[in-house]
C-alpha cells in the first residue's frame, strides 16, 4: 500500500536553466536559445532551418523571443519547437518578472511561469491596415458621390 508521500507528482519535473547556462551553449557543437522563457537545444535543427544557419547563430546563447516573434513563425514552426525543448528559464532570469501576463496560447506548448512579451507587430500592423482601409473607403465613397 502506497502512502501519499510515495506518490510521484503527476506533472514531470521541469529543468531550470539560467541565462548563463544558455550563454555557454553558443558553439557549433551545441546551440541553445530561449524563446518565451523556455530553453531549446536547437543543435540538430541548425542545418534544417529554412531561414538559414546564420540567423540561428546570431541568436544562439541568448533570448531570441523578440526575433522569433518579429519573423512571424507559423503554427507548425511553433509546434516544431516542442521537440527541442529542454527546460525553462530560471524565474530570476525571466524578463518583467513582476508583471504576470496570462495569455491563452493555442500552439500546444506549456508557457512557463514567466511573462510573455508581445511583439509590437502583432497589434501595430493590423491597426495601420484598418486605418488605411478606412481612408480608402472614405476616399472612394466621396469620389463616387461627386461623379
Automatic annotation (TrEMBL):
It is found in: Membrane. The chain crosses the membrane at residues 120-140. Residues 14-90 form the Cytochrome b5 heme-binding domain. Keywords: Electron transport, Heme, Iron, Membrane, Metal-binding, Transmembrane, Transmembrane helix, Transport. One of its GO terms (cellular component) is membrane. GO terms for molecular function: heme binding; metal ion binding. This is Cytochrome b5 type B (outer mitochondrial membrane). Belongs to the cytochrome b5 family. Its main location: membrane. Gene3D superfamilies: Cytochrome b5-like heme/steroid binding domain. SUPFAM superfamilies: Cytochrome b5-like heme/steroid binding domain. Coiled coil: none annotated.
Amino acid at each position: 500500500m502506497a502512502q501519499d508521500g510515495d506518490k510521484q507528482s503527476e506533472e514531470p519535473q521541469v529543468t531550470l536553466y539560467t541565462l548563463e547556462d544558455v550563454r555557454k551553449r553558443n558553439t557549433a557543437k551545441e546551440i541553445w536559445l530561449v524563446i518565451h522563457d523556455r530553453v531549446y537545444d536547437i543543435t540538430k535543427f541548425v542545418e534544417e532551418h529554412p531561414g538559414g544557419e546564420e540567423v540561428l547563430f546570431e541568436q544562439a546563447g541568448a533570448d531570441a523571443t523578440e526575433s522569433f516573434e518579429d519573423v512571424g513563425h507559423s503554427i507548425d514552426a511553433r509546434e516544431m519547437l516542442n521537440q527541442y525543448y529542454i527546460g525553462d528559464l530560471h524565474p530570476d532570469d525571466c524578463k518583467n518578472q513582476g508583471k504576470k501576463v496570462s495569455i491563452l496560447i493555442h500552439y500546444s506548448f506549456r508557457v512557463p511561469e514567466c511573462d510573455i512579451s508581445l511583439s509590437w507587430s502583432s497589434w501595430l500592423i493590423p491597426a495601420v491596415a484598418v486605418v488605411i482601409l478606412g481612408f480608402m473607403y472614405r476616399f472612394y465613397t466621396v469620389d463616387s458621390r461627386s461623379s
